[in-house]
Amino acid sequence: MGFIIFIIIIVVIIVAIIIQANTELNEREKARKSYLASLEKLKNNPTNPNIKQQTLQLGREYSHLTRNKKGVAIFDEIALMNDINAACAAATISEFSSNSMLERHNNTSSTIQEKINTLTSLYEQGVIDEKEFQQRKKQILDNI
């Protein structure tokens, strides 16, 4: 009888260990998926500091779970920042390109507008006639 109780206790302990291991594994997998989903959000909106902060926090939680809840190592912090910087890198490049293109467009538009304004002023002052005004205006607009 004592032997049967001993076997039952051993089986209960083994089942409890298996349940605990599965719970930890599920918790770790959930944290990993949350971190990766947040990285995707960050890729779609890389200039949002709230998403960046959330991603870092979720990454720390995932790292903490992968180290059996013994804290986050400096190596993990560096890996997290590398992931976050990579997710944000495309935004920096595209933002720079967009700003450059916008700046060039504004400069060109400004230059064209200035040329047309100058041409209009010359026409209104009688320095050039209507035929020359229309001809030069067409040249300016054709160069856009």
From TrEMBL:
Stretches that traverse the bilayer: 6-23
InterPro entries reported for this sequence: SHOCT
Keywords: Membrane, Transmembrane, Transmembrane helix
Domain spans labelled SHOCT: 115-141
The protein's name: Putative integron gene cassette protein
